[in-house]
Amino acid sequence: MVRDPVRGTVTAVLAAVSVAVTGCTSSAPDDGGNGRKTVPKPRTAAKSAVNGGSIGGPGSACALPVTFDLAASWKPASVQVGEDDALSGLAEQGPVTLVCEIDAKPAGNIGFLRVWTGDRTGSTPRQVLKAFLAAGPNASEATYTEVKAGALTAAEVRYTFSSELLDEPMKQRAFAVSTPSGPVVVHLGGLDPQEHEAMLPAYELAKKSVRLG
Which single residue of 81, 137, 202, 210 could bond 68 by disulfide (Cβ 3.0 to 4.6 Å)? Predict the structure, then answer.
């Protein structure tokens, strides 16, 4: 069964639950007793993105067509969904299927790096990302760029996810690469914009270190 899948209102519901569990709210920041409100700062647990090993290779938690470095304390877990699983459809988004989740909570943040893979389609990384977003409702303000992911040609998208269940739009980012086995999408969400920004170094570490095999 998929753990915390990303798709449509499911994302919004899970984000709302995370807020309740962690005690994070959208109320005004404490004024510290001096009458002046303080500005909340992003968490910094992943700020340095210290290398904590790699994922994707033989013996790692997730068998992938690519390998990339993990930020320290981020914990990967394989996602396996059977065809008869009631939530099997939620593990699929466009041309790719969710196969790995890398949890930021042990590093002090709330969010995941999620890895999606697909069969060989002949599509470019940009085409894969566009199909990925098209299959996920409530995505807007998408900006696509051609980038390098390690030594691989890649495409990247930045966009927002909105829902009436959320206090504010959620920033999202993903990059896609092509492999002989098919496309790979690495996606970063986050509980809120501050969490997303705090986790970006881990995402960038994955992007700059990704390689085939």
Answer: 210
**Residue 28 falls within a domain, yes or no?**
no
| Number of domains forming the structure of the chain | 1
pLDDT, tens digit, for every residue of 44-82?
Answer: 333 557 888 999 988 999 999 999 999 999 999 999 876
The distance of Cα 190 from the centroid of its chain, to the nearest Å, equals: 7
Closest alpha carbon to 199 in 14, 6, 47: 47
How far apart (Å, rounded) are the C-alpha atoms in residues 153 and 38?
42
Over range 8-29, report the average pLDDT. 34
- Which residues lie closer than 8 Å to 179 by C-beta, 6 or more apart? 65, 66, 212
Instruction: For residue 101, report the phi and psi dihedrals to the nearest 5 degrees.
Output: -120, 135
- Provide mean pLDDT across the span 169-194: 93
Percentages helix, strand, coil for the chain (3-state, rounded to 5) are 25, 35, 45
Boundaries of domain holding 61: 8-23+43-212
Compute the mean pLDDT over every residue in the chain, rounded to the nearest whole number.
Answer: 79
The answer to whether the beta carbons of residues 165 and 11 sit under 8 Å apart is no
